[in-house]
Design brief:
heterodimer, A: 580 residues, 2 domains, 5-stranded mixed beta sheet, 5 helices, 33 strands, B: mainly alpha, two-stranded antiparallel sheet
Chain lengths: 580, 436
Amino acid sequence: MSADRAPIAPVLAALLRGLLFGVGFVAAVAGTIALLNCLQLRRADPLNSPLRLEAIRAAQANPSNADLVAEARRIDLLARRAFFASQMLMHRAGMLLWVGAALLLGALGGARWLEPRVAPPGSPLPSPAAGERAARAARRAVCAYLALLLAGGAAASWALRGSARSDAALRDAPPEPPGASAPEPADAPDLDPPPDAWCAFRGPFGRGGTETPAPLRWDVPAGRNVRWSVEVPRAGFSSPIVWGHRVFLTGADASVRELYAFDADTGQLLWRHEARDVPGSPATPPKTSEEVGYAAPTPTTDGRRIYALFGTGDLVACDLDGHRVWARNLGVPKNPYGHSSSPLVVRGRLIVQFDDETGGRLLALDGATGRTIWETRRTVRPGWSTPVAAVREGRIRIGVLASPVLGVYDWADGRELWRVGELEAEIGVSPAFADGRWYAGNENTRFVAVDDVDGRVLWETDEDLPDVASPLVWRGLLVLAASSGIVTARDAATGEKLWMQEWDEGFYASPVAAGDAIYLIDRGGRARVVRASREFELIADNPIGEECGATPAPVGGRLYVRTQHRLIAIEETPASSAAP
Amino acid sequence: MLERRVVPRAGALALIVAAAVSADAAEQRFPKPDFKSGYVQPVYHPPTPARSAVREWADVAVLAAALGAAAWLALRARSRRGLWALSVASLVWFGLVRKGCICPVGSIHNVALALVDPVYGLPLVTALIFALPLVAALLWGRVFCAAVCPLGVIQDLVVWRPVRLPTALNRALGMLGPTVLAFGIALTAAGAGFWICRYDPFVGLYRRSGPAGMIATGIGLLLIGVVVARPYCRFFCPYGVLLSWGSRLSRRHLGITPDECIQCRLCERSCPFDAIRGPEPPHVDRSAARRALVRALWAAPLFVAGAAWAGRAALDALAPVVHPAVALERELRAEDAAGTPDLTWETRVFRLSGEPRESAAAAAAAARHRLRLAGLWAGAFVGFVGAGRIVASVRRSDRREWVPDRGECLSCGRCFAHCPREYVRLGRLDGPMGNP
């Protein structure tokens, strides 16, 4: 035993060893109990026992049968007791384990500290004074660090007092006008999201355009100006939306429906959220056509949540990290081709157009909870059109097109403001709004421009109308891309035809605009970029290399394109943009 | 006599199991409510991992295999070249291919969140990624740091002219790791996000993209690493703190000499991490040492209390910077006062959401409360670690030869590669060798 040890040390060490044996035993027992309990819970969860579930189902099916209800309640109570007893056991065992393990380590440290050690003889030692100096330096260094931490805390506290003063000054500021804390639409007529967000089908509120220019020239098969190209796990006709550094997309088949988030910079799939366990979701999905599928509606986001609707009527809201916030089923759509109308979130309310063979419904749901705020019934036929939002005199209005009417509704209460009829067809085209005018129509019926104030038809045409791609109104131009391959540009105010161009392949993707350029992607996978002008000017004819039916998202200087199997980000490099 | 490290290892394993069990307990659902009310208890639906389950388990298997290989190379084969080759392989696989995504360092956040948030379920794969290097440290020392961690190996490859830092500076910088660990966990627990991941300096280099500050920090640390070896691992890495604790209790650990120490001190010079400890003589003045010990023990509660107060004040002051709910409330209030709404994305999104203004204030107040509490605990932890180190510095170990410091040794193998006795073992020198 080394001579510098106090005589009490062996006694203390023995005591500590005894303590640690005891504590170690307790910790081991607690850990074993917790693990066994955990395994037992995994094998037989009382809450999901068939007996309980069956009893509840029987009681729910016959709520008037008092015996069944009483029996179900009794079984449910037993299950709850078992569950909570198990939870309590787990909690206590976990706590015991933590405390035991911590005490164990502490006791052992003490035992080792007091343990006598025998120094091997004969080894040369460095200067003892040098060792003392090093130890002193170490102590002082740690003291200095802690003192620095204290000084940091004091500085933070002092700074906090300053900010508290400024906070108080803010509180003492003149009282806000009524409603300023939650301003009415009249106070904020501009509903635009941040500039690099493309937050719904055809962009913010379905306008279809952004002032930020996007790439003009690229070649996907050759890899020119392709920032990344990734495979999408499941197919779908929904279009990409973008918020911040994330691109969102849906994909589905008859068995699985998913929402995806990709890194906008790298294309890496960040997360995927499966829309399962949605209350009311049908056990067997409805039949849909191949051209619609189960993931035709484009998701929408308000920067807090992403909302995705699927062909089963399942509506899922997730946070930006993919955790579910709420989900509900809106009813199984009875639609001959399948549901394809996209939801649209406007000032915290999710607007859903749900038109099927049972009639038309326009719903406004609370974005935070999924609760229905209002529902407006409409007498229309099944349709595939998506609602569009617009602001006029501080009031948000929702434009909805379905055979046979274009209707405009008040965002606040769902009241119909006016309607225009004689639009009878299989409506797949969404309306558009610009400069106080609504534009709506479809192949096999007419196309109208309507005054937003009173629903008066300003002009109409029936030439070369689309039946899938929606109209684009941009810089005074109305652009219609038809399934026949004919693209027409008209004066949006008068309806005068300005130019017409015909290509071999038709258009399912809606035209979009970025800056001065209009992007037209045909079904065969060629993207024509034309100048937004009264004269036709083809800027570029860019190959994508795959069939394409989704509407691209021009945002943040990039163009995100969904093809049949892939998601592609197109971005011009400085070198390529400098090239002729 | 009880074998010295059996019980501590058992204790540490119990802690890891406790973390796993607690995380698993957090996954348990609340019971479904009574059917009669019609209310349906919401079920937690986490996002499905972006990668397939097979590939995720393959990542775990590769990590386990790499840890095993590193342990074999460091302890059994004693091959510095082998460790270097494994480092390069880890750099390629975990860094360039997987882009730093299999990351035990960041998994600290997931485990911490699982412990405090009852609705957050810790995926088993993440729990394993967190636990495997710790278990390896308990068995074989910091073999994860030696040649597996992508953040470590990239720094190891740039060590060129390492200098020995003064003891005082080394010890003071050594307190940064526990501080990062404590406040990283505190911020996660308070709902402020994953700040350790946010300031991961090298992941941006592996992904070839990221914020300019992150890339610059990574490059800066690599430049510093030319002369101060592996600065992030030694002074900032929060996971290294946990590994260090595990390694101190390890069952086996890399040894410098294969048989006897000839006191040549070549190993000390070869170690770029100042992790070789030499002979330590007993105290010159034992009474002075006792007085120092008493002072340190008396001061310990003061250190803990002071650091706890400082931690609380720091997170309270930093709340608008670190917590999005507090930042939003502050910005909303400033905009309301100035009459200039929607200056930022966040305020614009909040106003567009139509949520009542009071909800933002309530969320901010709750967040501030959580931050203060978390800061208090984090500060107390840092104070406790500091006080413990001060007390420990009074102690003399009676060590008579040169050995690796089990806590700080990264098991890189440079020391045995420089040991003359190792050369004798390999038959490259004639023995026996005496003291130089």
